[in-house]
Write a structure and sequence with these properties.
By secondary structure, this protein is mainly β. It folds into 3 domains: 11-21 and 200-353, Jelly Rolls (Sandwich), CATH 2.60.120; 35-178, Jelly Rolls (Sandwich), CATH 2.60.120; 360-511, Ribonuclease Inhibitor (Leucine-rich repeat, LRR (right-handed beta-alpha superhelix), Alpha-Beta Horseshoe), CATH 3.80.10. The protein is elongated and about 100 Å long. The protein contains 2 helices and 38 strands. The strands form 8 sheets. Strands 1, 3, 4, 5, 9, 12, 15, 16, 17, 22, 25 and 27 form a 12-stranded mixed beta sheet that branches. A 6-stranded mixed beta sheet has the order 28-29-31-33-35-37, with no helix packed on it. Strands 30-32-34-36-38 form a 5-stranded parallel beta sheet, with no helix packed on it. Residues 1-28 have low confidence and may be disordered.
Length: 512
């Protein structure tokens, strides 16, 4: 059946069959990380691994609270002064992933008030983390994002914001590879999907997840006085998003009449665009027709007209539907239908605009500099430039069509290390301030930095000769090298008009 031509947005409808495999998540490149733990555990049929392979900062804490999932018996927390703290997870470029973060505060810091902070994926602000309501009910908080990998790693970060008064923390991370068809109507080159609600209507049991859902998505209960349940024995479905067959065992249908209304989800929504998927299956009882027809509206706007629902199941979805505040779903039986409408499940995901990423060559150069340092700044992980308020300490960027590093300032931070040649790959740099540290080794060839105007390397432990290549950095206007261990002759090409040069003090072996 084709979509109604009266729909205000672009819709998809799909109704073919596929078999739902009960394969393990591990076979689908699942990564379950138990933050703060030093050992592997098994919980809910999933294998969880310690987080030490994915992060180098933060401290672990153990919680002593009874009757909790072992995944939530530990956590990792971070210095509140760090702009962000990131887990770097291996992925396959171009593949779509579900990322789920979990937080269980447990009073680990002795304050009994959960901190409020942000979470970031790569260079994109994801959401603010506030676990207060869940903590009051002694339960964990979950956040879920669906995105495509653009590089060989994905960074999942917690970050301070204006409300952060104590240590950001995290309990667990899941990274699950999705099938190619799942949510494939979204332009993942520009957007991600943040899960707002996923419900099995008419269902009143425990959350449906793995192994019923092969991607361990959470389908929460949504009981109602119009609920029904049945043994559907659905082994084939017709949905690109591959829902678990169990969500079709229950549903909502009016006890009498041919109209059904529900407020879903139960929370008020931000003013934004959303991906909506609604799932239907005809619940056939003896004497009833083999199908039913219904129409759907969302907040009194027609969503789909005259949908034929069969025992094989149907789905309708919108890729960008505007919503705000509370949402009302209305279903009405079509005139030709002998029975009332039905609905079995629904998914609602907010469209998140991607924030971009720092140019790869700059990232590679900064990572090389980080590896050369004995004590790099705590927040030197994740994307160096984005989001802007969570950029790396000492790193200033330009956010144009390409995000570039334009200034590096680590003055007086007591850093030991060397200056790797790859620093010259950051060709947009116009200022480098590394004075008053403990950098040693030689000065690399910086000729590729054609925009460089200021270079401060004074008061370090640099040795070797002053490279004549510094005189070939055409735009250089200020060069400070005093108080190092440099030797040899000062290159003649550094004696030129327009260059403010400070070299001699502290370098007694230099010859003019």
């Amino acid at each position: 059946m084709a979509p109604s031509t009266s729909l205000p947005l672009f819709f998809f409808f799909f109704s073919t069959l596929f078999f739902i495999s009960q394969s393990q998540i591990t076979a689908r490149n699942g990564l379950m990380i138990n933050c703060g733990s030093s050992r592997s555990i098994v919980s809910n049929g999933l294998s969880w691994t310690p987080d030490s392979s994915y992060i180098t900062t933060g401290s672990s804490a153990s919680l002593k609270r009874p009757n909790t999932d072992p995944v939530f018996s530990t956590l990792r927390y971070f210095n509140e002064t760090a702009r962000k703290s990131c887990f770097v997870l291996p992925v396959l470029r171009g593949i779509r992933y579900l990322v789920r973060t979990a937080y269980f505060y447990g009073g680990f810091d002795g304050r009994n008030v959960p901190p409020v902070f942000d979470q970031i994926v790569d260079g994109t602000f994801w959401s603010t983390v506030n676990t207060s309501k869940d903590y009051a009910m002694n339960r964990p908080s979950f956040y879920e994002l669906i995105l495509a990998a653009t590089r060989k790693t994905i960074s999942v970060c917690v970050a301070r914001n204006k409300k952060t008064t104590t240590y950001p923390f995290i309990s667990a991370i899941q990274l699950i590879r999705l099938e190619g068809s799942v949510y494939n109507s979204t332009d993942f080159g520009k957007h991600a999907l943040s899960t707002v609600a996923r419900h099995a209507f008419g269902y009143g049991g425990k959350t449906i997840r793995f192994p019923d859902d092969q991607f361990d998505r959470f389908w929460d209960q949504f009981p109602d006085n119009q609920s029904f349940s049945t043994t559907s024995n659905v082994s084939v479905t017709g949905f690109w998003n591959m829902p678990p067959s169990k969500v079709f065992d229950t549903g909502l249908t009016p006890k009498e009449g041919k109209k059904l209304e529900l407020q879903w989800p139960s929370v008020a929504l931000q003013n934004s665009s959303y991906y909506i998927a609604l799932y239907f299956r005809h619940h056939q009882v003896p004497g009833s027709p083999p199908w039913r027809a219904l129409s759907v509206s969302v907040n009194n706007v027609e969503f789909y007209r005259n949908l034929n629902v069969t025992p094989g199941g149907e789905v309708v979805f919108a890729t960008r539907w505007p919503l705000f505040n509370f949402t009302r779903i209305s279903l009405s039986a079509s005139a030709q239908s002998a029975v009332g409408p039905v609905i079995n499940a629904g998914e609602l995901l907010q469209i998140v605009n991607l924030g971009g990423r720092t140019l790869t060559r700059d990232v590679i150069a900064l990572e090389a500099l980080k590896r050369s340092m004995l004590t790099p700044p705590l927040d030197w992980n994740g994307d160096p430039c984005l989001p802007q308020e969570n950029s790396w300490t000492g790193v200033t960027c330009y956010e144009g069509s390409r995000v570039r590093v334009v200034r590096l300032n680590l003055t007086g931070m007591g850093i030991s290390g060397s200056l790797p040649p790859l620093i010259a790959k950051m060709s947009a740099l116009d200022e480098i301030w590394l004075g008053y540290n403990k950098f040693s080794g030689t000065i690399p060839d910086l000729r590729p930095l054609k925009r460089l105007k200021i270079l401060h390397l004074e008061n370090n432990e640099l040795n070797g000769t002053i490279p004549s290549t510094l005189g070939m950095v055409q735009n250089l206007r200020e060069l400070y090298l005093q108080n190092n261990n440099l030797t040899g002759k000062i290159p003649a090409n550094l004696r030129k008009a327009g260059l403010h040069l400070q070299i001699s003090p502290g370098n007694p072996l230099l010859r003019r």
